[in-house]
Amino acid sequence: MGDLDLLKKFIDKSPDFWNDLDLTDVDPKHENVINKFSNNFDYNKFLREIRSWEMQDDGPIPFQFNTFNLKINNPKKILTLLLKKIISKFKKYDLTISLGDDIEIIKQIGAYDLLKDNPVHLSPYVDSAYFLSQNLSTNYRWNKYIYYAHTILNKKLFKNEGIWIDIGSFYGGLQGILAKYYDNFQIVLIDFHHQLCRSYLYLNKLYPNAKHIIADEHKTLDSVFSTNDSKFVYLSINNLHKIKKIKPFLITNMFSLGEMTRNTFNQYCESQFLINAKYLYLVNRFVSSPFFENTYKNDINIFDYKFDNFERIYFDVFPINHYQTPYRNLFGRNAARPVSSSYFEMIYKNIDL
Predict the structure, then answer these.
(1) What range defines the domain where residue 258 resides?
(2) Model confidence over 190-210: pLDDT tens digits?
(3) Residue 84 to residues 58, 80, 123, 225, 331: CA-CA distances in angstroms?
(4) Looking at residue 207, what is its pLDDT?
(5) CA nearest neighbour of 239 among 175, 172, 190
(6) What is the CATH number of the domain that holds 114?
(7) Assessment of whether the complete model's pTM goes beyond 0.90
């Protein structure tokens, strides 16, 4: 089945595809993202933007003049990227420095072989790659995926035939890396419909022989999880009740819990499927909205990540992209600045399991 057919199938099998904003508690950032997506939807445009679309992308990387970039970019975009590179040099904002820091961290933790085994330029729908050598490449977001994947593999946070729930899966990049290292997997991706659809196309391309289950099609998912064959389950945020009874081995959330409204945040943290999990792996901001830069319009901070039946077995500052200083406007001045709040990395283990 071709990409366009898969896209149409996902929309057809998802009755609420266009209704995510009918939910009562969508945070302002994602409300804006969904509105822009819905207002500008076009089948061909969507297929060109599986990994990078308006307000969401794989992040900035230094431009390289090579065959790969000439192939995937049109002349106008190449000129734009070259201009940005020249301007960044003039402003003394060099992305290669922070990218190099990320690579050194990946080497330090022993994840470099994992990156070699998963160069970003060989992944589906790629439109952003920085080459470290002829056959080795990465990008801003891919560095995070490699780090997460190594942590999960190294610390044995997932196992064959286990259930892994990821809250906020973007286009499925992390799932695509990790699934190849397990004989049987049951991976649940939770997100808004348009992002699940991107994951559906991306993971179908990588794993055409796995089961790809659109949760909207099923009244209950009990029978889905009764078998141990490899499967991806695409679960929209209005269908969380369908996984209430399952007992996941691992639950992950990277960045998005801290973006949510307080009410939605509490719903996830107090959910039965989270209480049933063996491990939680979380990466989020220490303070979602510092008073001097009120980023996400909520009052969530690190003290809110507490779970009664879990013990914390790992805690540190999340190191990937930590040294980037994005160029942005603040206090009426445009300059390179660190993010207003850095990110923590925590792993919890259920004391009852």
Answers:
(1) 3-350
(2) 999 999 999 999 999 999 999
(3) 16, 6, 25, 48, 23
(4) 98
(5) 190
(6) 3.40.50.150
(7) yes
